[in-house]
Amino acid sequence: PKIIFSGIQPTGVPHLGNYLGALKQWKDMQDAAHPSDKLFFSIVDLHALTIPGNADKLRRNRREMLTSLLAIGLDPERSAIFYQSSVSQHAELQWILSCTASTGYLSPLKHGLFSYPILQAADILLHQSTHVPVGSDQKQHLEFARECVTNFHSSWSIPSSSSRPPIFRYPQTISLDSSSSRIMSLSDPTKKMSKSDPVEKSKIFISDDEGVIRAKIKSALTDSVSKFVGEYDSVNRPGVANLLEILAGFSGGGERKTGRELAEELKGESLLGLKTLTADAVVKGLAEVREKFRQFGEDTEQNKARMREIEDIGTRRARESAERTMERVREAIGLA
Ligand code: TYM
Asked: Which of 44, 64, 83, 139 to mutate to test the pocket of ligand 1 (most atoms within 8 A of CB)?
């Protein structure tokens, strides 16, 4: 059986890059999962502390991210959705891994940022994850997580082929092949769409309403190479390629198209036509998410009680899975 794990920082409502690069895959993997597969999706609030700020804001952001994950269709009965900080084994394992991790990959900034990748490795290894669905910007961190497995096993002389299974598994990165694993900014298509970009119209949030989505896509920066779609060319026409990738991200369920295939189909289409098609697809593709976001975000006592219940279920499940691994880790290194 698969163990699927991924995480997202509670730093604001997810944007289209988060959605097409990661969250939509989470939902698709949840729906396609075999009953014996396990799924864990963490709101990584300890990682978010590397941007220190304001306690109330973090509290709000955590709840808002939970709302977002429910809105994209994660089912708390099927997937363990939990705050990283509620499962203290994540921090415990981070320390243990940091004692055998090599510093080469970590670059010296604030200490929290320095150890950021080790905490991420701990997140993944703690739950014996086999599959980690992420956008392409996370590939290097996952490579590092695999290196942590090797270093841990060899430092503590844990054989990888004996009657006893090794302590950690090597997780596999699951990233979309096409460039949708990296959605670019609408106002500067040479940069990735990013939560920290201050330019509002550079990104579409999963909670944006139809008018806002249409306006942002209409104002997306393209180019004056040609008034038509033409060849797919992410180097010379990054803005056009990005719209094609967004359109591709929302293309039909089973037979998902690539940006390149869509360029072929839409060769004679005007850029304005491409923008309209893309806006239509995004509006339609996010309609249900937007509606659920509103419902799960309702400020009523009844909804707040429901959200607390969902938080409890996720925490309980994640703690159980975490403790199973930690018992073996403590035993293997002489702490138990
Ligand atoms: P975060 O919170 O920055 O982003 C969440 C997910 O969104 C993807 N993503 C994108 N995909 C395509 N195009 C974009 N423009 C774009 N921007 C973001 C990210 O690749 C990610 O999958 N370090 C992680 C959180 C983390 C984690 C983990 C992930 C902590 N522990 C363990 C996986 C497993 C992060 O900061 O993601």
From this structure: 44
Radius of gyration of the chain (CA): 21
Could you tell me the end-to-end alpha-carbon distance of the chain, in angstroms, rounded to an integer?
29
Separation of CA 267 and ligand 1 centre (Å):
33
Question: What are the domain boundaries of the chain?
Answer: 3-176+301-333, 181-296
> Which distant-in-sequence residues (6+ apart) come within 8 Å of 189 by Cβ?
220, 221, 238, 239, 241, 242
pTM of the model: 0.92
Pocket of ligand 1 (CB under 6 A): 5-9, 17-18, 21-22, 44, 47, 120, 123-124, 132, 134-135, 137-138, 141, 181-183, 192-193
Residue nearest to atom 22 of ligand 1 (CA): 134
Tell me, in angstroms, the distance from the centre of ligand 1 to residue 108's CA.
21
Residue with CA at minimum distance from ligand 1 atom 4: 8
Mutation pick for ligand 1 pocket among 3, 8, 205 (CB with most ligand atoms within 8 Å): 8
ipTM of the complex: 0.98
Residue nearest atom 7 of ligand 1, based on CA coordinates: 18
Q: Map tokens 């073996």 to a residue.
A: 328
326 CA to centre of ligand 1 in angstroms = 25
User: For residues 103 and 118, what is the distance between their CA atoms, to the nearest angstrom?
Assistant: 10
One fold for both 3-176+301-333 and 181-296?
no
Query: What is the chain's pLDDT, residue by residue, as a tens digit (336 residues)?
Result: 999 999 999 999 999 999 999 999 999 999 999 999 999 999 999 999 988 778 899 999 999 999 999 999 999 999 999 999 999 999 999 999 999 888 777 766 677 778 899 999 999 999 999 999 999 999 999 999 999 999 999 998 887 665 667 899 999 999 986 666 789 999 999 999 999 999 999 999 999 999 999 999 999 999 999 999 999 999 999 999 999 999 999 997 667 899 999 999 999 999 999 999 999 999 999 999 999 999 999 999 999 999 999 999 999 999 999 999 999 999 999 998
Strand, coil or helix: 329: helix
What is the topology classification, in CATH, of domain 181-296?
Answer: Tyrosyl-Transfer RNA Synthetase (1.10.240)
Nearest CA-CA partner of 175 in 2, 38, 26: 26
Q: Does domain 3-176+301-333 have CATH number 3.40.50.620?
A: yes
Q: How far is the CA of 243 from the centre of ligand 1 (A)?
A: 21
